[in-house]
Amino acid sequence: MKLYPLFADLSGRPVLVVGGGVVGERKAAALLEAGAQVIVGAPGLTPALRTWLQGGRVQWLRGTFEEKWLDGVWLVIAATSDTELHRQIATLAEARRVFVNVVDDAEASSFHVPAVIDRSPVTIAISSGGHAPMLARLLRERLEVAIDPVIGAVASLLAQMRQRIRAHLPDVSLRRRFYERLLHGPVQSLLRRGQWALAEASAERLLDATETTPMGSVVLLGAGPGDPGLLTLRGLRALNEADVILHDRLVSLEVLALARRDAERIEVAKQAGNHHTTQMQIHALMLEHAAAGRRVVRLKGGDPFVFGRGGEELEFLRSHAIPYEVVPGITAALACAAYAGVPLTHRDHAQSVRLVTAHCQHSIDTLDWPALAQERQTLAIYMGVGELRLIQRRLIDHGRVAGTPFALVESGSKVEQRVVVGTLAELAEQAERHAVRSPALLIVGEVAGLATSLWWFGSAPLGTTASSSPVLANAAAA
């Protein structure tokens, strides 16, 4: 049976719900949200329904069902546990040409209540014809992820501008071009920030310039550490809206695979010895594509504001009046520690965390080593694989106990992840023995010792005898 999709305006219209139990309460709640005049017919009511009755939100027909309850109603929902009563209600409603929904009985129903995604005033409904409501709910969950909540605000703005849009763009093709540009331009970003006046002004400018090429925009997006499951929902939406993706070399192929298929992908790896020039080239690429009206995603590993030069890129965009937004990513310190079973803070071991970069010897010499060598704190050291022996020596020389645990997490969160553990005194030796390579994060502090017992992802840590993971033991027992 093919159903005809229909969105009904029930504002102020009487709708009968037969049944005062939990299911009847749920149906009444949805009807109240739609502004219906809800009438509940039942011998008794749930506490919530009684509260709504006392507040004048619902009416109550007390007792068992009678045919006269159907007088004047637009819809009826049968929500009791009496199958025979349900069939009777369906037959009487059919005779009166009143649409009826019988809970858990698709054949007796003349309309079905769909799974709903609410982005008011946008409403998306999914129906399985009443035959597989759980499937409809699962599909709704997937679409909830894909559809940005800001779409409701966009629809409200367009409703406000509708008459002006039609008057200014009588040609349908030009109107379509305007909608396309608006839906993929900076307006959504402004609405997401709650800046309604700026969004309205941006939409008005776009309307006036529809026959010209508008400025594009840039999203500075953190890709996370590599596991595509750690990409944020906002990040996923940005990738699917992008015309051009400028991505770092270390962004995983799995994350790139989530992007819009026809987006242009440009790798902008920074090569040693040519760092400054390469950053200038990245700036030039952002400007070039945004000036051509394209939606650019500057995709960076981890988080763009943690050792990612994101601030410099925003300063450049702002200086050239290019609209931008920032979508944070899960930085390596958080992800690598979590996937290695290392809590960065712990009541018994560490009350603070320091994020440090050790990209080269010059930057190492500028660090505050006496402060870094203090106890009861965790150090998360980025880009330090090439300077492990120097880091080891500096920390010990400035007072960090040589027996302090460390954990080196290579390719954190990816299937090839490796964790090497030991004490600070053997850091460089263990790294060499196990041929640790970049990208790898170094964690130093008492909490690093917990990796040997709390590990759960990938293989057991190397460099020491790890105890069996409680997580794995529980999984095996199950």
Automatic annotation (TrEMBL):
<keyword id="KW-0520">NAD</keyword>
<keyword id="KW-0511">Multifunctional enzyme</keyword>
<dbReference type="InterPro" id="IPR050161">
    <property type="entry name" value="Siro_Cobalamin_biosynth"/>
</dbReference>
<comment type="pathway">
    <text>Porphyrin-containing compound metabolism; siroheme biosynthesis; precorrin-2 from uroporphyrinogen III: step 1/1.</text>
</comment>
<keyword id="KW-0597">Phosphoprotein</keyword>
<feature type="region of interest" description="Uroporphyrinogen-III C-methyltransferase">
    <location>
        <begin position="216"/>
        <end position="478"/>
    </location>
</feature>
<feature type="domain" description="Tetrapyrrole methylase">
    <location>
        <begin position="218"/>
        <end position="428"/>
    </location>
</feature>
<feature type="binding site">
    <location>
        <position position="383"/>
    </location>
    <ligand>
        <name>S-adenosyl-L-methionine</name>
    </ligand>
</feature>
<dbReference type="InterPro" id="IPR003043">
    <property type="entry name" value="Uropor_MeTrfase_CS"/>
</dbReference>
<keyword id="KW-0489">Methyltransferase</keyword>
<dbReference type="Pfam" id="PF10414">
    <property type="entry name" value="CysG_dimeriser"/>
</dbReference>
<dbReference type="InterPro" id="IPR012409">
    <property type="entry name" value="Sirohaem_synth"/>
</dbReference>
<keyword id="KW-0456">Lyase</keyword>
<feature type="domain" description="Siroheme synthase central">
    <location>
        <begin position="120"/>
        <end position="144"/>
    </location>
</feature>
<feature type="binding site">
    <location>
        <begin position="331"/>
        <end position="332"/>
    </location>
    <ligand>
        <name>S-adenosyl-L-methionine</name>
    </ligand>
</feature>
<keyword id="KW-0560">Oxidoreductase</keyword>
<comment type="function">
    <text>Then it catalyzes the NAD-dependent ring dehydrogenation of precorrin-2 to yield sirohydrochlorin. Finally, it catalyzes the ferrochelation of sirohydrochlorin to yield siroheme.</text>
</comment>
<dbReference type="InterPro" id="IPR019478">
    <property type="entry name" value="Sirohaem_synthase_dimer_dom"/>
</dbReference>
<feature type="binding site">
    <location>
        <begin position="301"/>
        <end position="303"/>
    </location>
    <ligand>
        <name>S-adenosyl-L-methionine</name>
    </ligand>
</feature>
<feature type="region of interest" description="Precorrin-2 dehydrogenase / sirohydrochlorin ferrochelatase">
    <location>
        <begin position="1"/>
        <end position="203"/>
    </location>
</feature>
<feature type="binding site">
    <location>
        <begin position="43"/>
        <end position="44"/>
    </location>
    <ligand>
        <name>NAD(+)</name>
    </ligand>
</feature>
<dbReference type="GO" id="GO:0032259">
    <property type="term" value="P:methylation"/>
</dbReference>
<dbReference type="InterPro" id="IPR035996">
    <property type="entry name" value="4pyrrol_Methylase_sf"/>
</dbReference>
<dbReference type="Pfam" id="PF14824">
    <property type="entry name" value="Sirohm_synth_M"/>
</dbReference>
<dbReference type="InterPro" id="IPR037115">
    <property type="entry name" value="Sirohaem_synt_dimer_dom_sf"/>
</dbReference>
<dbReference type="InterPro" id="IPR000878">
    <property type="entry name" value="4pyrrol_Mease"/>
</dbReference>
<keyword id="KW-0949">S-adenosyl-L-methionine</keyword>
<feature type="binding site">
    <location>
        <position position="412"/>
    </location>
    <ligand>
        <name>S-adenosyl-L-methionine</name>
    </ligand>
</feature>
<feature type="domain" description="Sirohaem synthase dimerisation">
    <location>
        <begin position="151"/>
        <end position="207"/>
    </location>
</feature>
<feature type="binding site">
    <location>
        <position position="225"/>
    </location>
    <ligand>
        <name>S-adenosyl-L-methionine</name>
    </ligand>
</feature>
<dbReference type="InterPro" id="IPR028281">
    <property type="entry name" value="Sirohaem_synthase_central"/>
</dbReference>
<feature type="active site" description="Proton acceptor">
    <location>
        <position position="248"/>
    </location>
</feature>
<dbReference type="Pfam" id="PF00590">
    <property type="entry name" value="TP_methylase"/>
</dbReference>
<comment type="similarity">
    <text>In the N-terminal section; belongs to the precorrin-2 dehydrogenase / sirohydrochlorin ferrochelatase family.</text>
</comment>
<dbReference type="InterPro" id="IPR006367">
    <property type="entry name" value="Sirohaem_synthase_N"/>
</dbReference>
<feature type="binding site">
    <location>
        <begin position="22"/>
        <end position="23"/>
    </location>
    <ligand>
        <name>NAD(+)</name>
    </ligand>
</feature>
<dbReference type="InterPro" id="IPR014776">
    <property type="entry name" value="4pyrrole_Mease_sub2"/>
</dbReference>
<feature type="modified residue" description="Phosphoserine">
    <location>
        <position position="128"/>
    </location>
</feature>
<feature type="binding site">
    <location>
        <position position="306"/>
    </location>
    <ligand>
        <name>S-adenosyl-L-methionine</name>
    </ligand>
</feature>
<comment type="pathway">
    <text>Porphyrin-containing compound metabolism; siroheme biosynthesis; sirohydrochlorin from precorrin-2: step 1/1.</text>
</comment>
<keyword id="KW-0169">Cobalamin biosynthesis</keyword>
<dbReference type="InterPro" id="IPR006366">
    <property type="entry name" value="CobA/CysG_C"/>
</dbReference>
